[in-house]
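Example record

One chain of 187 residues, shown exactly as stored in the release files.
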Amino acid sequence: MPRAHDVNLNASPWVRRFAPLIPKGGVVLDLACGTGRHSEWLAGLGYSVMAVDQDVAAVEGLNNPLITPKCLNLEQQDWPFGDIEFSAIVVTNYLYRPHLDALPGILQKEGVLIYETFSQGNGDFGKPSNPNFLLNSGELLAFAARHGLLVVAYEDIYVDQPKPAMVQRLCAVKGGLKQRIPLQFQG
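Predicted structure tokens for this chain:
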């Protein structure tokens, strides 16, 4: 079992930075959760998390009562979430454009979207290099504007950690923030 310190180091600094904006009491969707690094970290903060991916064996192995693993094919034609609403949605290192515009519809009012994935130019540093899996310049900003999301922070940058990559990041809120919380980088 990883120690809390190790889990904190595995969680994306972008997710760690904006998690304080997530409303308490709801369920956080960790979309395309992979091994569950963000699910585990958010559960450690006391959030209930639905961890969704096509393979949730690693998440099931966490045996955390605050994490509900759900095995779903996120790239099927029909959007699998229907009427479920979440207090936050966390997406890292994943992009499937056919369902991208469905995300705001499952976010509660004042819900937080924390999104971070690869962008154009990443092929210069390795995979992914397929344009289908790389955000276009300003794509997340246009997405937020299209859905009336309040942009709290946005970056389209080169990073060298955990490996060299081009990434685009967005933290946005549906319908605005009830209260302002001073955010600090938690590196």
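Notes: The chain has a mean pLDDT of 89.
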